[in-house]
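Technical appendix A lists one of the benchmark inputs used to test multi-chain prediction within the project. The record comprises two sequence entries:
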Amino acid sequence: MSASTRNNGNGGQGGRGSTSRSTRNSVRSVDYATSPLLASKTPPWRSRFVVLLVFLSFLVLLGRAVHLQIIHTDFYQAEGEKRFVHKESLPASRGRILDRNGLALATSVAMPTVQADLKLLKADAAQRKSLAKLLTMPLPELNDRLDGNAGTVVLRRHLEEAVWADIQKLDIKGLQQVREFKRRYAEGEAAAHVVGFTDVYSKGIDGIEKAFNDQLVGHNGQRTVVRDRLGRVIEDVGEQASPVHGNDVMLTIDSKVQFFAWQRLRDAVLLHGAQGGSVVVLDVQTGDILALANYPSYDPAIRATMKSARLRNRALTDIFEPGSTMKPFTAALALEQGPWTPSTRLETAPGHITIGGYTIRDSHAYGSLSVAEVIQKSSNVGTVKMALQMQPRDMWEMYTAIGLGQKPRIDFPGAVTGRLRPFKSWRPVEQATMSYGYGLSASLFQLARAYTVFARDGELIPVSLVRNPENVGLPVVGQRVMSAKTAQQVREMLRLAAGPGGTAPQVQQHTLGFSVGGKTGTTRKLEGKTYSTSKYNAFFVGLAPVSQPRIVVAVMVDHPSKGKYFGGDVAAPVFSQVVQQTLRIMNVAPDMDVKAQINAKPVAAEQESI
Amino acid sequence: MNKLTAILIIALLGSCLALVRSAYESRRVFADLDRAKLEQRRLDAEFRRMDAERQDQATHRRVERVAREKLAMSNPAQGATVFVEDVLPAEATR
């Protein structure tokens, strides 16, 4: 107590000093309740200052809140949306490609694509092993992908539905599926060249898929939704764009005709060890292409089969010299101009003729032949004799009128023009060779179309590959090239060529019930600048039934290498099989009585002049 | 005055609850609708897939092979076929 009394004299100056002194002097506890510090008076501004500070800090908080919630709202709103609002894409499917009867040649099907989310992935060794087996992927490769550090890896695209179900049974965490469209091609190899194919992103690369990509392609839609914490969609936000599915394209192809034509062609190509071949089938009443098949072909579903030699649509993109199949047009021009009639006789002995130093030969000397017989037996000399009495200009006009040297009007990528030189540069020998189909070139498709002139009584008709719903069932209007009488007379000659005494005598015999007419062709292949002596192209182009034609069929077999190479031996059998199948499928009534007898003795073919 | 306020407060509370309920209901129904739409899309895709598969099973190649090899069928001989005149318009026989 004595210390405190002593300190009183110090006044306000020394409260702290006295305490420290007393603790230094003794260990006696301090009596706080009576601490002079508490007893001392504080100036009033201090408490006001503190209140002010508290008030100011509240003001700062309020200001910040106003700033965040009223002035700068974007950030938190964006963050909030990120957590609840989701953009969803609505996938649109690509249109289908249909045949004339509505059967799908190409469809898009949504198939599961398996992904692994590597953050969530939990798979033990056994699970990985069975997963590798289901994905048909070697285990080390799978492990490689799963052990990466990227976010999501695609394991396999376009799995079968059943396989995905099996994978789900493995119960691996972190595996997801995404639906992606895959193109399916029902007819596979048989229609591959017409339909074409797409890339992985469903963009058309070849064929109709390419030509009509704009029409087929679908446009994905998009919508914005709000999801709750369970992931359920509870609200649509903003504008929605619905998916626009692609439009279907309907072709004139009949998948049945197409398949059988392709099958027969394939058999013939394999039988004769040929390099390849093509078949074109046209409906002459409507101008529809019923079939357009090539061999070798590829499977649009298997990319490994797509080698460039197989991808080519030979019937449209390959040109060649049409050879003897041109002779009927020379004969037709002769009949048009006169004084030739089908029975006018001309002398083909001694079986060869020399023009400007070149010799043109027949396979053997026929002697005296009528115009009809020249076509029936395919005599080069006879044809040349007719041609030499014509003006080059008239021949050129005829060839141009039937579409040679002109780009075919067809919606298909890569259709070629062929080659027909202007008549002013023709030398006499060239005029002679052109009369039997050398020195000009065309595609098989052009050749088939040219023959519609004979089938349509002198009219060349436009042909189509895509069906236009507006003019289905309407007969097409053609362009007159020759008189109906001439066309009918040539048709009769074609019938003779396909019967006994012609260059393809078995054709009529093997086409039961229907009368057929056609022309063989066998040409040496051009190798560089000279003609090969061992490589040939074999053709047969014809129509059926002769009395009232419904179809034109053109067959080409490229370089048959197993002994037989004449058009009458190699291409003609394909023709008769295709004609019979096609007319049956089209429900055309037979125009000939079928005799049940079987002709055991084959009739020898008239050897064709090459 | 007090009575009126009390009634109004109760009415307000009731209306609030009704609003909450109807908002909840609408979200639930919307979620159901969305699920149904998803199901529709899935079934649609499923239909397309199965249709494609059906066609795969019915290609001309397969039909021809089964008919010839398994069922030992063959084309009727042309002599044994009788053709009848079709009285219907051509469109119907397509």
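DSSP finds two helices and no strands in chain B. The CA atoms of residues 12 and 63 of chain B lie 74 Å apart. Comparable benchmark entries are summarised in Table A2.
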